[in-house]
Amino acid sequence: MTQKTIFITGIGNGIGRALAIHYANKGWRVAGLDPDEEALAELRAGLDGDLLLVEGDAGKEAHVIDTADRLAEWLDGAPLTCLVNNAGIANPYAGPLEDLSLSDFQSWIDASLTAAFLCSRSLLPFLRRGDGGTIVNISSTRAVMSEPNSYGYAAAKGGLDALTHAMAVSLGPKIRVNAIRPGWIETRNWQKESQREKIEHREQDKAQHPAGRVGNPEDIAQTVDWLIGAGFVTGQAINVDGGMTVKMIYEH
């Protein structure tokens, strides 16, 4: 049986890092792209198995094309089981709209939405091998609700939701495409060692969530697992937020 393979953008830290560890522990071949070489070096040192970790920016066409060439050689004709478009700028806050430059706004779009387009386009031939693959786009609950001064981040994630259903319609039935909308997923303790923090959440942080806690990256990994196996699910955006977005919160 062909060993399953996953490619993760933004693999160095946070959700991407957790996904890399999750799938390496499952015995998958793990590949990914990230501009943070220090974080990639830590992953190489800490993970067993067959890895391809490429330093580069998923939002830059030349980097993605070069990565696809390296991935083709590494796969050696084997299919890609799943592409996770996880890359993005973690901090959503842009400040007042009147002070936001076009280049800064565009940086959010390129890091998430443009990156998902570029990587999906370049890796599609590998996903089409065998029985067909799955694309999972990491969107955000901010695609459908906002906090103040988060224009670029919200626009990028909203566009990613739309790209998800557009690709699902066009690439099916061979390729299924879905999105995950994380809510509050705690990633500060999932960074490279030099930036890792020990986290303790307040009771009011937990109480925002009907599930009774803040989320963690393993919650996202479990959802990716489910989407890979959910053969009749495509074109969907699934909130993974502990119920936070359905709870009415009043200021008193």
TrEMBL record:
Keywords: Oxidoreductase. The keyword Oxidoreductase applies. The keyword Transferase does not apply. Residues 195-216 are annotated as: Disordered. Residues 195-208 have a biased composition (Basic and acidic residues). Pfam families: adh_short_C2 (PF13561). Belongs to the short-chain dehydrogenases/reductases (SDR) family. This is SDR family oxidoreductase.
